[in-house]
Design a protein that fits this description.
Length: 107
């Protein structure tokens, strides 16, 4: 999928979907190891540095925040049941409560 041309909108959409899938802004490695995404360079050419990009302000804020809560969630996970996989850990019925409270307590 290397030499195709993408519109900014398409790239934005792909980046957003990837971020949703892994619950954080993808790194160069995560983008390049995904066969369904164009090369990381293609994104950088369009947006520049992700974290400094005005165009990516919304997803960067949203997914950085989500990732931060995810990390805290697993830090607080019961060690005996923690799977190390945030998606599995979050299936716990207390997860929703944790995320709700986190929004209210932190930040
Ligand atoms: Zn966990």
């Amino acid at each position: 999928m290397a030499e195709e041309n993408y519109t900014e909108e398409e790239l934005y959409e792909m980046l957003w979907q990837k971020a949703e899938e892994i619950e954080k802004i993808p790194t160069a490695r995560e983008i390049n190891s995904d066969p369904f995404l164009p090369n990381y360079e293609v994104f950088v050419e369009c947006f520049g540095n992700f974290r400094e990009s005005e165009k990516l302000k919304e997803p960067v804020e949203k997914f950085s925040r989500l990732n931060k809560i995810n990390v805290c969630f697993c830090n607080d996970c019961n060690r005996e049941v923690c799977t190390g996989d945030i998606k599995i850990c979050k299936e716990n019925e207390l997860a929703d409560l944790y995320y709700d409270l986190f929004e209210k307590i932190v930040c």
